[in-house]
Amino acid sequence: MTPLDAALDYAARGWRVLPIIPGEKRPPLTAWQEQATTDPQHVKLWWGTTFPDYGVGIATGQRSGLWVLDIDTGPGKNGDDTLADLEAEHGPLPDTVEVLTGSGGRHLYFAWPDGVEIRNDQAGRLGPGLDVRGEGGQVLAPPTLHPSGPAYDWEASSHPDDTPLAQAPQWLIDLLTVDTSDRAKMRRDRPTVAYDGPPRPGDTFAANITWPELLEADGATYLGTRTERTSGEPYELWSRPPMPGERDFTPHTSATLYYKGSDVLKVFTSSWMGADPGTGEVWRLTQDETYTRFGYYAARHFGGDHAAAAASLRSVQDTTDIADLLSTLGDAPEPALPEADHGWRQTDVGAVLADDYDPPRPELLHLADGDALLYRGRVNTLFGESGGGKSWIAMLAAAQVIADGGRALYIDFEDYAPAVLNRMIALGCDRDALTWRFRYVNPVAPWNLDAAEYLAELIRTDACDLVVIDSTGEALANDAVKDQDDEVARWFRKVPRYLADLGPAVLLIDHVPKNVEGHAKGPIGSQRKKAAVSGIALELQTKVSPARGVEGHLAIVCQKDRGGAYQSGKVLANITVKPSFDRPDGVDIVIDRRTGPER
After folding, report:
1. For 60-92, what is each residue's pLDDT tens digit?
2. How far is CA 383 from CA 119, 305, 508, 523, in A?
């Protein structure tokens, strides 16, 4: 069955369908929740003309009359085990339509219940490895290919031609719709751990504080109680706290507590972290690690140093002392920065005036004659029309770095790894070279101290020559930065300037305003974007947009050059983006010189 045939079949069942980008799990539509359709003419237009090679997605929710239970069986997920625990406690699920996913998991399709809203909950409210696709969600459907390669397929005995959509049992509906506040009423507080031997700081600590007191003080959320099917022991589900700066956070299962009668916290996520309110220092729990109460305290306040944690508890005798201690730790004053880190150190003027001083010159993104456009250790920007080829030029810069034996880091807020890697391969990059010399980050949280430390270590360890941020607008939105000069300026100092100070050339991709007569002098939004450029600001003028089967014709114009190598307003190069003659499915980008450096 072709994607078109499948989409027509699903639409005839009343299931709203939408195209899925090849090699990804998302649609190409910006308002797909509303654009998903059951109209056969629209379906034929999409898969017959506009999106002929795309996969098929089904929009879940009331209008499609269905919702989906996603059972993830990947490493560390154990969705089948979680579901077995639920069925052992509440009863079996009915037979219903089932899809075998491309990653080895399962999708169970259920009929939409009357008078109840099943929300799209990708956070695993039911437990580890169980997600819900409800109102506002979508699932990939057969014969769509999973990004890893295998296709989605109907389970042989559960095809929609043979099996009707079942109504989910009431117990499952209740678990999905009961409020967290209602669940809290079911809560079973565990006593503190008794200890009869000689007083030890860790044991005294555990005997005088409960797990809820520890976890809730750091913003963790209790989600409910489950029963382990083999031992019959109840255990609790907990959600991690929001990460520093994280917006629109939905509590979800991140750990279990008291599993199989234990008194330990089992953490399933690498994102259980926070920032100390006094020092701003970021702390993090380790994924797949178990913690005692004292172990959690040591990890939370002392970076896992049990000796330091024990020393802090020498004077603790009872619950009051512990509460006072935790309060003191939370209110610790911010430490003074050492002089070397105050950010206002003077420049060695003598070194700048020395005869052997080499002024900055562009070194990356080479033209056909060997000259370059981007400055190392500086913030550079490339702006142009949406769909005009900016990402192709940024990836060309990365491909050149890799071909020269260097390394590039691509921070992507607009696309996904498969699409970017396919483009890099189309530009001639070897797969092994990409594995060793290309680093890709697709942020899922706002900028934070831990991210800064992680990227700094990555850039230093790999000696990255180039960092691409695609795009500035989406990066600002990810950090909830409003389009105001002061906020934009602070973001530039905090993120791209910080990365450039580590040594690589930083290239920001940005858009020009729409419906502008002539060509823009700068990217869309705050003027601080252009002012914050410390290297070169390049405008990409699009004559013919590159597309499959269409040869693209572009021009690069210098709009600002802090280093003085190029004159503002000058056309630096004409660019041709065309199919490769010697590489099937390859793309060649030729950058021809128009004017030389001004000095």
Report:
1. 999 999 999 999 887 767 788 889 888 988 899
2. 38, 48, 8, 6
Measured distance CA(360)–CA(563) in Å, rounded: 6
Domains of the chain: 3-174 (no CATH), 184-330 (no CATH), 364-593 (3.40.50.300)
8 A C-beta contact, residue 54 and residue 19: yes
Which tokens hold the place of 36? 């998903």
Q: Cα(347)–Cα(364) distance, rounded to whole angstroms?
A: 25
Query: Is there a cis peptide before residue 231, judged by omega within 30 degrees of 0?
Result: no
For the ranges 251-265, 315-329, 360-374, 561-575, the one whose mean pLDDT is highest? 561-575
Grouping H, G, I as helix, E, B as strand and the rest as coil, residue 320 is helix
Alpha-carbon distance 300 to 188, whole Å?
A: 24
pLDDT above 70 (res 599): no
CA distances from 437 to 366, 432, 466, 504 (A): 18, 8, 11, 14
| Tokens (6 digits) for 578 | 């065309």
Flag whether the pTM goes above 0.90: no
Q: How far apart are the first and last CA of the chain?
A: 63
Q: 380, 510 in Cβ contact below 8 A? A: no
**What CA–CA distances, in Å, run from 75 to 151, 574, 596?**
19, 48, 54
Of the CA atoms within 13 Å of residue 539, those in its CB half-sphere come to: 23
Specify the 3-state DSSP secondary structure of 482. Answer: coil
Whose tokens are 């009331």? That residue is 62
DSSP H/E element including 342: none
The pLDDT tens digits of the residues spanning 572-598 come to 999 999 988 778 888 888 888 754 444
